[in-house]
């Protein structure tokens, strides 16, 4: 298969970025998207065309959340329920032009080419995305039965890989789906209850501080999430937030 | 000659750890704040150690190469985590988990370490549940279990096919809590390039910031290496692209012994190789072997027809299928340990019965779908089926999966004593980076157990024992000559790579190394092949240093340089793997020497001559390393031929 690639190139955070066009021929349809970029980079080096295109990637099986490219206007490309590394070239047509950009969000500044800084997500988790159970001194794992349905729902929310596609998809660059997934996971479990009221307030406050936008209920985040995290998590977080504001004794 | 002291406490096996904890030295809270602990790596072992040591009050600095600690490759573990909870009332116990792990490791692991692992396994499950890890549950609300290879009980806890993810996120959240509390300082996108040793003790590290190329110095009263395994020496493996053995190799070159490098696990259920451009192999969880049945055609002509595309799996009648694992190992069937399942697949494919490209066997769910229904199968393995379909474009609900073995995990690693301390005082190694618990073969669902055991429940005790003597030592400024020279070494190495200005890309050379390793130091090894491999690896090293091409320089984000730095170390590590495989004139676990097999093709151990840990000492550039032996004494377990029939 042959492709024309329009790729965002940017030297560093301060530099001005631009699109470069590269032609690539003879790609197998069984090749993954990132393997296609590997081949491009080998070509760029060997033919002295340009420095290789820098992009984040690691596990290449859709779980680490490291990769994330904006492909033809969609986070992680045209396939539903997959990350960029799970996308295969057979999803494109021979001769296609493919546009590749980094995530675009104020809270995710570009480091180089297609690589962005997502440390804002870590900062939100540090505000309260945990249950304060220090090592040791906890009860037997079966001491508190948890209804299967709650455990399953918590698991679905916990499947978030923190890739940032939700932010990239949102016209407001809101992180509501990411934050609500973590809030929901703990809100659904009895172990998460003692800190639930503090957690939701602190995490939302941090999210706002870091420059993520507000939610205007268009749900592009849900449509583009590679792990199919549901928008109902956002509703649950809003409910938790209001309850916390109304009933918390903490100031 | 250095001697290896494993420091195993006296007394009966089941009391060793309890006695150790009761008599170890402690550090009072005011002194803990004055002690710096460096932890390299944020996988299960690193993140759990950082969280636990931070919570104790030590001043922790933790480093990772990705943009967030949550991305470490532990995240990709699928199937589950073992523990001796005996919730299903099926005859499990700490003793049984201990026994299965020793036997699974083909009697090449240290008894005391493995027993401790089995003892703390239950605490891990308690801890994870308290952190909000959403393990699978029954309708009763209690935790669910499943079986894994090498066990006849159901002791594996799981969270869908994403157990590693959930456990790592649990450790990551505990770590995040400590970052907020200020006890842990988090440094991302920094790769360890050197170890700083002062007066014989590990005192710090040198890192390279992968965004800017900045070389930085860090002091610690002790250093914990939790950097995972070295499977990427083989190029194609189930490891993540950035997983590497470089930090461990730098420690080896500074005096830490490297133990049993030849023990490399080849996992039986991976998606087969399909092209030259392929960058990695994807694992299909071992849990699939609970319900999937592995087979190849009984008749060669059927296998040939399938390979030629003239027949499909569904055209082969039931009586013409060879369920070779069930045939050869009726007691364990499809759930034999990984090394055995891998070799059996290779045996069938080498004999001409392989499907696909010839290097694949079927993993079939038809019987399970008929027995349980498609919904139940989807509930158990849905995400794995989806992953398979995305990669291969085949629907495993309708046609059997095709699988083939691939490099997955390294049992070998930095030598540690009972306290997880290396031969360099003050340098500890945890998780896959050390060699300690899995012998010559790791059982499924035991890597997660070991990583978290080391981090949550072993290091917090043993590091304190070491640091109790360090309260008299103030922080050392990073301006000492030792820091200067360690930094200089790194800068010179980088410059040397950049100065080569050769013709071959790093990936090209990496693939060449991978081919040598897979062909000569892979699943079946021979004296002849290994003796050929060593000069080939040495030649590749020469070629690397005279013909590698890395452009752009150090002072920017330059993945080519990162890969080159790692490859330089991996080439040297490859040679040590081959050397170790050559000296070990026996077959055990993941190490199969074709000269040493029974008439039925099973691995033939030589307990008389090889019941030891081979710990290698670095002797200088281009010098032959020296191997030291730690004899393994089995006091409590009866050593016998491994039998899964």
Write the layout of secondary structure elements.
The complex is a heterodimer of chains A (251) and B (645).
Chain A: E1 3-9, E2 18-24, H1 33-46, E3 70-71, E4 74-75, E5 97-101, E6 110-112, E7 115-116, H2 119-128, H3 148-158, H4 165-169, H5 176-187, H6 196-209, H7 220-224, H8 232-247
Parallel strand pairs in A: 1-5
Antiparallel strand pairs in A: 1-2, 3-4, 3-5, 6-7
Helix pairs in contact in A: 2-6, 3-5, 5-6, 5-8, 6-8
Chain B: H1 16-23, H2 29-32, E1 36-40, H3 44-56, E2 59-63, E3 81-82, H4 94-104, H5 111-130, E4 156-157, H6 163-181, E5 184-187, E6 190-198, E7 201-209, E8 215-219, E9 222-225, H7 246-253, E10 258-259, E11 264-270, E12 293-297, H8 300-307, E13 321-322, H9 324-328, H10 338-353, E14 361-364, H11 366-372, H12 374-392, E15 401-410, E16 413-414, E17 427-429, H13 447-467, H14 481-500, H15 506-520, H16 527-547, H17 559-583, H18 607-610, E18 612-617, E19 626-631
Parallel strand pairs in B: 1-2, 1-9, 2-5, 9-17
Antiparallel strand pairs in B: 3-4, 6-7, 7-8, 10-16, 10-18, 11-15, 12-13, 12-14, 14-15, 18-19
Helix pairs in contact in B: 3-6, 3-13, 4-5, 5-13, 11-12, 15-16, 15-17, 16-17
